[in-house]
């Protein structure tokens, strides 16, 4: 299996990936307020949620994500936001070590757009970089949402330009075979 490993020179860039993407916004407020703002902005568009808190918040207040990616951890501690996988049509598990995007993750995300219904993706490892992969794999006119600890949530529209920026970033990762 291949691992795309985050190079040190990209760490700060990816911490603020949303700033590189056209028409992305940061939403602040309580979980319920953020969910309501997201509903107003995206309408009936498909949403890919990355992170335990984001997934559980959207599952509670709406809109229900097409894809929820979670690792049962929040800020590297066990999550207090359990994801009810019974709410999903399909549940996948991916191996994605910290600081990487795995080939397994990329392959499974690529096929999600063909699945009818909602998909939960349980990450064994860490889901922090999966937002980049999701942006590459999601359909145009979808949205990617992920948490920005202490700041709110980032909402990124999936456009051809944003997909290209994400591809260029991923191409800068170091590829390691394990």
Could you provide a short overview of the structure?
With 178 residues, the protein is an alpha/beta fold. The chain contains six helices and twelve strands.
Could you characterize what this model shows?
With about 180 residues, this protein is of the alpha/beta class. It has one domain (about 1-175). Helices cover about 30% and strands about 30% of the residues. The protein is built from six helices and twelve strands. It has helices at about 10-15, 30-40, 50-60, 105-110, 130-135, 160-170; strands spanning about 1-5, 25, 45-50, 65-70, 75, 75-80, 90-95, 100, 120-125, 145-150, 150-155, 175. The strands form three sheets. A seven-stranded mixed β-sheet has the order 2-11-10-3-4-9-7, with helices on both faces. Strands 8-1-12 form a three-stranded antiparallel β-sheet. A two-stranded antiparallel ribbon has the order 5-6. Strand 10 and strand 11 form a beta hairpin. Helix 2 crosses helix 3 (about 50-60), helix 4 runs parallel beside helix 5 and helix 5 packs across helix 6.
Give the helix/strand layout.
Elements: E1 2-5, H1 11-15, E2 25-27, H2 31-42, E3 47-50, H3 52-61, E4 67-70, E5 73-74, E6 77-78, E7 90-96, E8 100-102, H4 103-112, E9 119-125, H5 130-137, E10 143-148, E11 152-157, H6 160-170, E12 174-177
Parallel strand pairs: 3-4, 3-10, 4-9, 7-9
Antiparallel strand pairs: 1-8, 1-12, 2-11, 5-6, 10-11
Helix pairs in contact: 2-3, 4-5, 5-6
């Amino acid at each position: 299996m291949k691992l795309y490993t985050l190079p040190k020179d990209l760490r700060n860039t990816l911490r603020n990936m949303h700033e590189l993407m056209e028409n992305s916004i940061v939403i602040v407020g309580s979980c319920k307020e953020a969910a309501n703002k997201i509903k107003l902005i995206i309408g009936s568009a498909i949403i890919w949620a990355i992170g335990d808190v984001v997934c559980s918040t959207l599952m509670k207040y709406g809109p229900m994500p097409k894809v929820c990616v979670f690792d049962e951890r929040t800020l590297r501690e066990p999550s207090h936001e359990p994801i009810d996988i019974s709410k999903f049509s399909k549940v996948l598990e991916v191996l994605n070590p910290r600081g990487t995007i795995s080939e397994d993750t990329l392959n499974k995300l690529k096929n999600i757009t063909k699945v009818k219904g909602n998909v939960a993706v349980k990450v064994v490892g860490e889901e922090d970089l999966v937002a980049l992969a999701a942006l590459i794999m999601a359909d145009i006119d979808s949205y990617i949402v992920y948490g920005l600890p202490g700041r709110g949530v980032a909402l990124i529209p999936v456009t051809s330009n944003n997909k290209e920026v994400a591809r260029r970033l991923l191409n800068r990762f170091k590829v390691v075979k394990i």
